[in-house]
Automatic annotation (TrEMBL):
It is found in: Cell membrane. It comes from Brevibacterium pityocampae. Residues 3-82 form the ATP synthase F1 complex delta/epsilon subunit N-terminal domain. The gene is atpC. F-type ATPases have 2 components, CF(1) - the catalytic core - and CF(0) - the membrane proton channel. CF(1) has five subunits: alpha(3), beta(3), gamma(1), delta(1), epsilon(1). CF(0) has three main subunits: a, b and c. It is a peripheral membrane protein. This is ATP synthase epsilon chain. It comes from the Bacteria. SUPFAM superfamilies: Epsilon subunit of F1F0-ATP synthase N-terminal domain. PANTHER family: ATP SYNTHASE DELTA/EPSILON CHAIN, ATP SYNTHASE EPSILON CHAIN, CHLOROPLASTIC. Keywords: ATP synthesis, Cell membrane, CF(1), Hydrogen ion transport, Ion transport, Membrane, Transport. Its main location: membrane. Belongs to the ATPase epsilon chain family.
Amino acid sequence: MSLQVTVVAAEHAVWSGEARRVVAKTTEGEIGILPGHEPVLGIVAGGQVRIVTADGEHLTAQADGGFLSVENDRVTVVADQAELV
């Protein structure tokens, strides 16, 4: 099982693909997302979104503002500003 992850900024797509795990900081605290996670909507609290791809590669995106949505093994991060670091 894997997650379908999309990270976008207001003006461009940052990264999209399959992942094993996503960890992001929200206003409620840090959240870890694995396949099968219950649906959730959170406000991104400026910080890093860490992604472990299906191939085991570790990616980090700096995301400022916006929201994170999880539903049916799809994770979408929509940020005011975002870039891979």
